[in-house]
Amino acid sequence: MPKTPARMAAKSVPPSTITLKHVAERAGVSPITVSRVINTPDAVSETLRDKVTEAIDALGYVPNRVAGALASAKSRVVPIIVPSLSNIVFLEVIQGAQDVLNAAGYQLLLGDTQFDLEREQALANTLLGWSPAGMIIAGLRHTDRTRAMLKTWHRPVVEVMEYGTKPIDMNVGLSHYKAGDSMGEHLVARGYRNIAFIGCRMKVDYRAMQRFKGLERCLKRHDLPCRPPFSHDEMSSAELGGDALMRALDLDKSLDAIFFANDDLAIGAILRAQREGIAVPKRIAIAGFNGLNLGALMQPALTTIVSPRQRIGQIAATKLLARILGQQSGAATVDVGFSLRAGGST
Amino acid sequence: MPKTPARMAAKSVPPSTITLKHVAERAGVSPITVSRVINTPDAVSETLRDKVTEAIDALGYVPNRVAGALASAKSRVVPIIVPSLSNIVFLEVIQGAQDVLNAAGYQLLLGDTQFDLEREQALANTLLGWSPAGMIIAGLRHTDRTRAMLKTWHRPVVEVMEYGTKPIDMNVGLSHYKAGDSMGEHLVARGYRNIAFIGCRMKVDYRAMQRFKGLERCLKRHDLPCRPPFSHDEMSSAELGGDALMRALDLDKSLDAIFFANDDLAIGAILRAQREGIAVPKRIAIAGFNGLNLGALMQPALTTIVSPRQRIGQIAATKLLARILGQQSGAATVDVGFSLRAGGST
DNA sequence: CTGAAAGCGCTTACAG
DNA sequence: CTGAAAGCGCTTACAG
């Protein structure tokens, strides 16, 4: 023991940080009992529990989560890794998860990969250093190392957004392929024959590509022409949607419908059509994906596919919690489905 | 020492978790040296550094952040506390902060208060248990205990969103009062005389109330009538904006302009006016606040006040980092200002 | 530039 | 139901 450890607080002044020990001393019990009152109150007699509670309040004790996490090798933290924070879609999932996890005393640790799987791997690796209780991660596509790392981790992991078989552990999402197919069916049923798909950054936004593939299957089934998707390099935005509409109409006069990869683009297209005096859906039908409320207020109302994003976050968090607490968590995979909301735009 | 500690790994099998010690053994150095290579590489000779780096890579060592945080009493985590995650405004601040902090190896810990200051206090208290390196918190209004707690904490704190004097520590934001006044001046200059303010949950969303107060001051200065604000209990949404517009026109036929507390409401109002055939701005002028890009695509384009939300997050994070690293962080308070974007809607 | 010792504030796994 | 001992995996503050 060093002669005068700098860390040793002078006995006469009140300690700068209140620890379990201080609470224990004041309550006249052992530190362990205090720990139990905090973590498993039912395991302590009412008498002691009251004494300890009094001491905690009197001293304003705040448990050191870091020490607890180190000793128990787990923390009440759950990382959520998403491709991007600028996309409303991921935010709603985060929101849903936050509601459930916060209520249960868990904190979300935020990570975004910028749609880069290598970055995702590095991030997951770092975040594991926090001994999280579980993890929520967007998508079913990861590097092999990320998959291996999370598989051998032996803590609950939920992959969210798209639905698929063989997740790392659990999965909550919907089939973007089927969603694309459904929208195709809708457009064909309404009589459109020359249908294009317009998206953004589809090399990395592979879920948008899946929606296109679904559309493609549908068009082939109906022996209709299938054009390759237009994929812009910029990020999705309403403004880009308007520009893309104009360019598409210019390049291919025969188009009678456009399925945009998301509502932002589609809403921008409708607004632009309004300004340019292009009749929707008479000259060109416009459809989106996501089911933003705003779409329903457009003139004409946007036809879109509604996905329950907040529910995805809630279900994911609920299943994660159940597993963390050792309870029944239900099926490993959940297809939350989607619904097509038909409006006047198609 | 217990006879057979359950935690002791059998010597023959590879350890389930790689620690500093394993790396040190493999590299033939002491654990401290490994720690130095990770945290202060310049303090280690190149020879040892290479050996250690090799060992880290070979073993796939991931530093246990929790242990590091406990030993050093600080972690590379920064909580960001906002009123709500459903509001785009806070998300953009989070995004800005995330970009800067992630790049520097810090993780954001997410907290939302649901606009409840008691909840904010409890949350801040809990999050302090993570020994964060600093904290970002929305708003300048907190409970006295929250303020006291953060003041005595002696780590950097940045309050964001609104600008004001006497922050807890640092502050980055804009004057919502001035913004309201500016919009008032704009409306008056364009000839409007009967101006109303419509917001949502203004008891808790006090920044919206500040914008109203700014408008009020302006109207008084011009000897114009000032109506009390309409404040709806529901959350802001485009749909509500449309409904609010109709109700306001119905209740007060003399209105010639409405300043909505945010663009969501204002955009909804413009879309509703379109559907109802109400001429904007001829019958009623409409203005918003936030500067969403979408507003510029409306017909007519929405007059609004642009606030640099992402920049607020970036500046806040940058100043926080500077202080964490013991560098110059510049002025304690930063007024990021705002600009009025006049469109055809007024 | 490098290392041996002690400790951060909790919880685990016993034992009673 | 309660507690004494040990340890979680790092870093701090010395000393050399």
From TrEMBL, chains A, B:
SMART domains: HTH_LACI. It comes from Acidisoma cellulosilyticum. Residues 18-72 form the HTH lacI-type domain. Keywords: DNA-binding, Transcription, Transcription regulation. This is LacI family DNA-binding transcriptional regulator. The keyword Magnesium does not apply. PANTHER family: LACI-RELATED TRANSCRIPTIONAL REPRESSOR, TRANSCRIPTIONAL REGULATOR. It holds the Pfam family LacI. GO terms for molecular function: DNA-binding transcription factor activity; transcription cis-regulatory region binding. InterPro entries: HTH_LacI, LacI/GalR-like_sensor, Lambda_DNA-bd_dom_sf, Peripla_BP_I.
